[in-house]
Amino acid sequence: MAQKKLLLIDGNSVAFRAFYALYRQLDRFTSPDGLHTNAIFTFKNMLDAIIKQVEPTNILVAFDAGKVTFRTAMYKDYKGGRQKTPSELLEQMPVIREMLADLGIKSYELKNYEADDIIGTLSKMGEDAGYKVDVVTGDRDLTQLASDKTTVLITKNGVGETEAYTPEHMKEVNGVTPTEFIDMKALMGDSSDNYPGVEGIGPKTASSLIQKYGSVENLYDHIDDLKKSKRKERLIRDKDKAFLAKKLATIDRESPVEVTLEDTVKKEPDYEKLRDLYERLGFKKFLVELNQDVTGGESTDAENYDYVELTTDNIAELDNLEEKEISFYLEMLGDNYHLAPFEGFSLKVGDQVYVSRDVALLQEMPLKGILENKTIKKNVFDIKRTYVGLHRLDITAGGLDYDMLLASYLVNNENNSNDLGEVAHLYDEYSVKTDLEVYGKGKKQAIPEDEEFFKHLAAKVCVIEKLKPELLKLLKDHEQDDLYDEIEIPVAFVLAKMEIAGMKVEAGTLIQLQNEFATRLTELENKIYQQAGERFNLNSPKQLGHILFEKLNLPPIKKTKTGYSTSVEVLDQLKTQSPIVSEILDYRQIAKIQSTYVKGLLDVIQADGRVHTRYLQTLTATGRLSSVDPNLQNIPTKTEEGKQIRKAFVPSAPDGYIFSCDYSQVELRVLAHVSGDSNMQEAFKTGYDIHAHTAMRIFHLESPDEVTPLMRRHAKAVNFGIVYGISDYGLSKNLGISRKRAKEFIDSYFEQYPQIREYMDKAVKEAREKGYAETIMHRRRYLPDIHSKNFNVRSFAERTAINSPIQGSAADIIKIAMINMQKKLEELHLKTKMVLQVHDELIFDVPKDELETMKKIVPEVMQSAVSLDVPLIADSGWGHNWYDAK
DNA sequence: CCACTCACG
DNA sequence: ACGTACGTGAGTGGT
């Protein structure tokens, strides 16, 4: 018989998590009759994800019966002082239980007991009957139930993501066994359940005491063995509290539940009731799923769009087109549209939808004319992809006007999917499936037969058009029309042209480097193996860790989740202890360059001798671009060996130039601008070396001559730290100084630049009020975590609130510069191509006779991209390859 | 598919 | 007491 699996869910806890997961969406999630639905919706999503993961045969969802329990009888303030459940969640609780019933899932509550105790009791019943048990909750108390048969899944931020607590994982996290965890809590108490333990004992101390003594009882039996200390006094004084806390923390595994395991068997859903419920709640997504469940995967007809197949026979219908606005979708299978095979297209003209697998039709009249006609506006999903795809078919797209992907990214970039279906689902539009659903992935990825494929293409082009008004309205409401019209749309074309141009890379130069590096790597390997006394895989951190820390007995400075850390940070500190360490560092450095850059680049040089990266325009949270296949934004600059790679990047013409121009301190200038700090603005206006200026101020020096290189280095690190949302810990780690010293630097900095501190406070405050941070061009980044009660999660969001407007505004600025630059190149009919963007730097492929023009116009255009309260400065360099362009 | 490591701004 | 710098992509090993 198959293994029976019992899934136990802490209903209140999961509902609570579900509610806050979409708290920001509270107002968007309401049913037609005014009920909030965010928790119900997310609860169902979480439930689906968990069921998919666990595949249970039996399920029970436990709920708390009320405030009064046997624990409140023991201790009247148990869970006292808790904020009461928001009414917006409370109203959803009965509906969740109704939904569970309709889904065929048992839910249960027991008077006088908490959900924890129901779960504790049923998990024991399950274990005794030979079931495998999984418990799902957001409450770490339940981890005490973990055993070889029971796993406790603690919900994490993402929907359906959980952290699995097995006894082993428990040991790693808390250093104690699940049962000992109860004793740990006895000493610590629990502030969220509002009961104290022993004063002054937190998780660390509790864990080490329990590891030593095994239990609270045993600890107190040996209390006299402890050295006289404040802690000992407190342990003795708070003994009663500790024993009470232990009782409160212990989950009752023998509670009088009136449920049998038979009652928890998962039943068939009641589809009719579910349909009624989903309709009442306005859950389109689940209604679509329900239809698929009932019909065995097929959507119902209501979700289909009519279409006709376009062929040479009916293409004449497109002659003399009157429409001035159409929608278009070009399908290529795979991400890399420079190479991906064409699979088909769809076209929506008025109410008529055409689909076809035959992309050659696009090259025929009248279709080609329509696609190239600038006065016929086209709605698409991903202008850049479409432009490049059509370019490969010798079509110069004109009139690409609306981009659903870009619009959606600007409206909310929390979900950075570039799948049309997934994006549509964000706006409650489920009439289109995702590519993953239709085409599959990996080896099995394939275009389905005509009917399913055409349906999908038709749905795509219809949805582009259908969601357009809503997305445009959101852009307007967010005051993002300019960002969209004047920056992102134009920059999409600039990027398309850059990608198409590509950059010439000389394979010969790389092969020469490959040989040199191969020799050096062999030498280093031999030396390392000799000192290690054996051969091993140097690229395996695990094997390397074994050699360094077990065989050679070097001190392990840092651990990772899975073993010893062997990162640069660690190895740097071990350098002095053994010569093998420096050689490993050298090996690592060269091996990285060899595999990622030399070999990596050789693999992606295309037939035209060039590399054509793709810039991802809708990925980052801040508005920066990213670059893939290959990534040309992380070509080495720091080490000499690394920099050699740049010699392979050359201009198209042998006597041409690579011309590079980068903004100087653009992020700090943005900070000076947005903060309005007069001291920092003054420094930029007078053209000081900003880091030296900072050094003078924070170290209270009279003249620039007194600034030592070390002071400047420290000041520079502080400036960077400020941009990142500084902490004394981070700065101390970066500079290798004490935390105290780091704090002094920071305090001194804020004394000298008081408005910077005001900016940081304001950035956090505004993010808290609005729920997002914003750049100078109104690019948004939502920060729901800013309300988290987890210190770390919240702190991270606060630093992000400080950093995002700075990094994001710098991204806005260079995008404007790129648009103006491309315009200038075209106006002047230059043959020069803009080929790369590396966040604060633009790189051009320049014919010899255009160099002088470029020297003049590029800095001009970049410096005048926007007008800030401080000047923007851009510095140029050029040479016959990228290495020399400095 | 994840963890680790390391390349860039 | 907590346990951290901000934003990325790619190669490798190991499950």
Mean pLDDT: 91
Q: Which stretches are poorly predicted, pLDDT < 50 over at least 5 residues?
A: 297-302
* Number of beta strands: 25
Give me the CATH fold name of the largest domain: Rossmann fold
Radius of gyration, taken over Cα atoms and rounded to an integer in Å:
32 Å
Q: In angstroms, what separates the terminal alpha carbons?
A: 71 Å
The share of residues in extended strands comes to 5-15%
The total tally of domains equals 4
Output the strand order for the largest sheet. 3-2-1-4-5-6
General form: globular
Coarse structural class: alpha/beta
What is the C-level CATH assignment of the largest domain?
A: Alpha Beta
Helix content: 40-55%
- Looking at the overall shape, the CATH architecture of the largest domain is 3-Layer(aba) Sandwich
In DSSP terms, counting alpha (H) and pi (I) runs of 4 or more, how many helices? 35
| CATH superfamily heading of the largest domain | 5'-nuclease
Major sheet details: 6 strands, mixed
